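User: My notes are a mess, but here's the protein and zinc ion's SMILES. Can you give me a structure?
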Amino acid sequence: MPLEIIDDQFMVCPDCLMIIANDDASGLDDSLSEKEAVEREQEIREAIAETQREGQIAVGDSERDDEFSVSPCACCGTRLAGQRHHCVILGSGRKS
Ligand SMILES: [Zn+2]
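Assistant: No problem, the inputs look usable. Here's the predicted complex:
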């Protein structure tokens, strides 16, 4: 069954994007202590897993990135203002 976009405005913070796009959380240690980075990674991975129950997260159109936003990250929910990257949710389109 072809996947279709079920959410075309899934704006995520740079931390989430890093894990969604590259499955790589190593950049988290840049701004956090080792312990904080581990906790943050776990928080993000749980948020991603939660979202994946509805559909698959895919990196969207970088043209639609937001340079600065105060809206919470659609994935982990951080309220830290900053960049938001455009992602989409792909699903089968069936409502559960
Ligand atoms: Zn996030």
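The helical segments are 14-22, 34-52.
User: Great, I'll file this with my notes.
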